[in-house]
Amino acid sequence: MGMARFILRRIVAGIVVLWVVATLTFFLFFVAVPKGVVARNLAGRAATPAVVAQVERNLGLNEPTSVQYWHYLDHLLHGNLGYSYYSQEPVITIIRQALPITLSVVIGGVVLWLVVGIGTGILSATRARSLFDRVATVGVLAGVSAPVFVVGELLIVAVFVQLSDHGITWITTGYTPLTQSFSGWLGCMILPWITLAIVQAAVYTRLSRGSLLDTLGEDFIRTARAKGISERRVLYRHAVRAALTPVVSQLGIDVGALLGGVIVVEQVFGLQGLGWATVNAITQGDGDLVLGFVILAALFVVVANLIVDMSYALLDPRVRIN
User: Fold this and answer.
1) Closest CA to 107 of 180, 181, 189
2) Do the beta carbons of residue 315 and residue 244 sit within 8 Å?
3) Which residue of 75, 129, 150, 182 sits 20 to 30 Å from the alpha carbon of 36, by its own alpha carbon?
4) Global pTM?
5) Which ranges constitute the DSSP H helices of 162-273?
6) Which contiguous run of DSSP H or E holds residue 286?
7) pLDDT per position in the chain (322 positions), as tens?
8) Which residues contact 187 (CB under 8 A, 6 or more apart)?
9) What angle do CA 105, 102, 292 make, to 5 degrees?
10) Nearest CA to 215 among 201, 190, 194, 236?
């Protein structure tokens, strides 16, 4: 029951957050801007007067603000994120086409940086001041200092170009759908995953190492050792689980900010995902598409943080959910 109430509270809180974001974006796009400019902004810079007039009719911009607000929320509740007058497609259609690419990059990158970062952090903490620990520290500093776009370009030159010159074409750029070919999908995703993961893996190595070292000095760890529990069980059953709590907290923050990194990665590797579509929408002044991406990003952050919050009780038994 405690977990069910906790999940319910988080879902309600997430709904409230989404409503606040939707309300703020409505006032920023539709109220704070002069009425004659709203339709022009949403239609795009290249829109003709006929298209602008069509936008005004479709959105009911001549109606009272309260009516416009209700129609806006009603459309969101029914999954209607607007219409891109620049590409002549519904925003939800554009998102459906781009979302699989971005999810492929994000999920693979997150899994990679968690495995590498946490694994290296655990080994460094259990071998403190060893040669491995010192090498890992240098690697962390190098990883944190590396800009994402520089890492991506270096990987293209050092890996993709070199392999292509030797007739190895498994690793590619662009995007191959998973449903079309698993090996093709993996080949076009591996370099973006590494690019996205290098900086974050360095951060998580440092964070998990410091957290585990602190946890190993806690009283409950000394008690477990005094009971004769094996060191391996003490480490992985008790210490690591408790040490991962701040790591999970950081993950909630990073996942929320991940879309910024994805934009760079997609631009470097020519992946036409949400990041690529967002840059084009901003460049073209496609207001409805930008607005749709804002709502989607808010939903992405809310869902990610809900999953992170639910993970606390699973990782650390000292955390109680009421």
Assistant:
1) 189
2) yes
3) 75
4) 0.77
5) 162-165, 182-216, 219-226, 231-233, 240-256, 258-269
6) none
7) 566 777 788 888 888 988 898 888 888 777 766 656 667 766 666 667 777 777 777 777 777 778 888 888 888 888 888 777 677 788 888 888 888 888 888 888 889 888 988 888 888 888 878 888 888 878 777 777 777 767 777 777 777 666 666 666 667 777 888 888 888 888 888 888 888 888 788 888 888 888 888 888 888 888 888 888 887 888 877 788 778 888 887 887 787 677 666 888 888 888 888 888 888 887 776 777 888 888 888 888 888 777 777 776 666 555 555 5
8) 170, 171, 172, 176
9) 155
10) 236
First to last CA, the chain: 8
Sorted by where each starts, the structural domains of the chain and their CATH numbers stand as 2-91 (no CATH), 97-315 (1.10.3720.10)
Based on the number of CB atoms within 10 Å of its own CB, is 5 exposed (0-12), middle (13-18) or buried (19 or more)? exposed
* DSSP designation for 125: H
Six-digit token string for 275: 């990041």
Cα–Cα dist 273/177, whole Å? 12
Close Cβ partners of 296 (under 8 Å, ≥ 6 residues apart) = 81, 95, 274
DSSP SS3 for 89 = strand
